[in-house]
Amino acid sequence: VAKLCVCDLLVAQCDVNCCCDPDCSAADFSLFTTCSVPIVTGDSRLCSQKAAIYSLDVEANPPERIFKLIDQVNPSVFCIHATNYKQALSFSPAEMPTSENFDQLLKRFGSATFSAEPDSWNMNTDAQNPSDANDTYRYEYGVPIQTVDAFLRLPSPVVSSWCSDANPAGFLVNQATKCTRSVSVEECGTIQALSMLFYVNSSILAVPRSSQMVNIQVQSIVVQSLNGMRTLLNGSDVVRLPMILDELCINIVLGVSYHITYTDAGEIIEAAAAFVLGAINKEALSIQQSFEISFTQVNTTPVPLSGNPGYVVGLPIRAGFWPQGYPFPVEILFAALVLNTNRYSQLTILQSTSNQDCLAAQGARTPVLFGYNMVSGCKLRITAAMKCQPLTQILLDLLKGQSFPEYVASFGNSQAQDVLDWVPITHLRTSEQSDNDRIYNTFQSSCQIPVALEIEVKWTKYGSLVNPQAKIVNVTATITTTTLKQLPSGRERTIPITSSVVFTDISSPAEPGYKAWPTINVKLPFDFFFPFV
C-alpha cells in the first residue's frame, strides 16, 4: 500500500495535494494545504491489512508531510481472511470470437442459461473408483436419479424464469417447479421439451450403475383447452405427439408429475408420469410449464405432512391411535397411525350440510385446520319412540366420528416412530343440567345425551425467535351433555348439535431483563465473494 497512489495522475510531475505522489519533493509538500487522499488501503474486504496514512504537519517550518504505515482491522462481520486463491488476483483473458470458434462459442453461451464450469470438472467416477466396482449400489437421499443416457430431468428456472433442462431429480427429494419456455407454432414439432417422449423415452436405472432398468409408465393424460378447461383422457397409455391442426399446435406438454416407488434398500421399482397437455396459437411466444416429483416406499401408505417441522396455518392437524400392547415395534405404531385414523390421518369434526339434518350428515367430516377456529352443527329431530341408549350412541358417532383419534402430532412432520412427538388427547365431559333438571331426574325417567363437542388446541412458538415453529402441546376434547325428558306419545322435539374448535397460543413472553441476541441487518454487495462461489 506504500507504493499505491490513486491521486498520482501526472507523469513525472507532482500532483497538487497528492501526499503519496513519489514525484513530489519536500519543497512541494511545504506548499500543500491538505492531503487529498489521507489513507490508502488495498482490498477493503480483507479482515486485516496494512494502511498508509498521509497528513501534513502545518506547525513545522516549513510544513512537511507525515507518513505512517499501520495495521487496519475491518469492523465488518463479513470479511476475507486471506487472498490465497491466486487466480482471483487477476482476470482471465476472455476467448475472442473468431471465424473458427464462433459456432462453438454460440453453442455454449447462446442459450438463455449456460454453465461456466470447465469440462475438466466432469469427472469420470468409474475410472477413479475401480475398487468400488464390486460394491452393491443403492440410491441415497439427494443422489441424482440415473437413466440410461444421463439422469432424470426436472426442468426448473435457474438464473431467470426460463426453463433449464439440466436440473436432475434427486432421490427422495420432493420437488415442484415452474418455468417459462419459448415456443412457436411453426417449430412446436421440433422442440423436444414440448413432447411427451422427452420425459418418458429414457429408462431409469433401478440402482446406480446397474443394467436393470425401469420404464416410465404413462399414468394419466389430461388435456387442457385454450380457455383452461381440463378433460381426463381414457386412453392414457398412448403417447400423443405435438402436431399442427388448424393453425394450432396441440398435444404440447404443459405439466409433468412423476411418481417414483422405491424399496427400503434404495432401489427404484416403479416410475409413472402424469401429463397435462395443451395447445397454443400463433400469437403465443412462450408457455409456462410445471413439473413435480414425489416418492412412495413400496407397501406403505403415504402420509401427508402439515409442516416442516412446525405446523403451517391452514393445513390439517395430523392424528392417530396408540396400538394395542406396549412395548411395541415401530412398524406397529406406524401402521396404527396411518391405517386406523380418520380420513388421511387427520383430526376431523362434523361437517355442516345445507339441510342441517343430523341423520343425513352422518359420516360427513371435515378436517381441523391448524390456526382456524371452526364451528359446525346440525339439528336433530327427536320423537317419543326413540330410545335413550341408541340415541346417545348415534350422537356420539355424529360428534366424534366412527374412529376418534387418541393422539395428535406435536409437529407438522412428526414421524410415527417418534413416540414423544405425539400428544395424547384429554377427554372431558360436562353437563348443561340445571338445578330443576336434577330435582326432576330424581323422580322421573330422563336421558343424558351429548349435544356438543368442543376441541381446544393449545400451541406454542418453538425454536428460534427469528423463525419460530408452531408446536401443539395440549389437546382437550370436551363432550357436553344435556337432559332429554321423556316426550309424550306423538310429540317431537328438535335440538341443536354443535362442534367447535378453538386454537390458543400459550407462548410465554420474554422474561423481564431478557436480552435477545443482537441481529445483524447487513446486505452484502452483489460481487462481494467474486470470483469465489
From TrEMBL:
Pfam families in the record: DUF1619_N, TCTN_DUF1619
Annotated Tectonic-1-3 domain ranges read 138-298, 307-505
> What does UniProt give as GO cellular component?
MKS complex
Provide the coiled-coil residue spans.
none
For this chain's UniProt record, which GO biological process terms are given?
A: cilium assembly; protein localization to ciliary transition zone
Protein's UniProt keywords contain Glycoprotein: yes
Highest taxon, organism lineage: Eukaryota
Tell me the keywords, alphabetical order: Cilium biogenesis/degradation, Glycoprotein, Signal
Q: Which residues form the Tectonic-1-3 N-terminal domain?
A: 2-102
Q: How does it assemble?
A: Part of the tectonic-like complex (also named B9 complex).
Similarity annotation: Belongs to the tectonic family.
Please identify the protein, giving its name as recorded: TECT1 protein
Please report the organism this UniProt entry assigns to the protein: Nyctibius grandis (Great potoo)
Q: What is the lineage of its organism?
A: Eukaryota, Metazoa, Chordata, Craniata, Vertebrata
